[in-house]
Write a structure and sequence with these properties.
The chain is an alpha+beta fold. The chain has a single domain, classed as Nucleoside Triphosphate Pyrophosphohydrolase (Alpha-Beta Complex), CATH 3.90.79. It contains 3 helices and 9 strands. It has a 5-stranded mixed β-sheet, with helices on both faces. Strands 2, 3, 4 and 8 form a 4-stranded antiparallel β-sheet that branches. The chain is globular. The two termini are 17 Å apart.
């Protein structure tokens, strides 16, 4: 299970860049839950670790699944409505021993997002269709397989 946060500012989406096997790709700031954490607590903690931002309020925006490479991941995406701080590259404690490494943060506009190497692609398509729309009802997007 992975909890993550979509944060938009002036039409741009905050993404983190990961590197795995020499290939870079973008994901939303987020990660796995620690024992006893709620989804929201994990998403807020991960946002702070990876970007230095403190998310104070938000809501569930999308749920999607990914299946591949002998693993299945349930992604729970929150839409941030209130936060503080300035983004800066943080750390990814899960990165130790993990094949993907956190290498950057960046703001991505809607048009450039269409060609960005965003994962998972199912969530990326849905986000582009509902870009910066806090009023769209939370949705289950289904499962994507590799």
């Amino acid at each position: 299970m992975r909890a993550q946060i979509a944060l938009f500012v002036e039409g741009d989406l905050l993404c983190v860049r990961h590197r795995k096997g020499g290939a870079d790709y973008l994901v939303l700031p987020g990660g796995h839950l620690d024992p006893g954490e709620t989804l929201w607590e994990a998403a807020v903690r991960e946002m702070g670790e990876e970007t230095g931002l403190a998310v104070e309020d938000g809501r569930l925006w999308a749920v999607s699944e990914f299946h591949g490479d002998r693993r299945q991941v349930l992604d729970c995406t929150f839409y941030a409505t209130r936060w503080s701080g300035r983004p800066k590259l943080g750390s990814d404690p899960e990165g130790e021993g993990h094949p993907a490494t956190l290498v950057g943060i960046e703001w991505v506009g809607r048009e450039s997002f269409a060609d960005a190497p965003f994962r998972p692609t199912l969530l990326g398509r849905w986000m582009r269709a509902h870009w910066e729309d806090p009023d769209v009802p939370a949705a289950y997007l289904g499962m994507e397989s590799s």
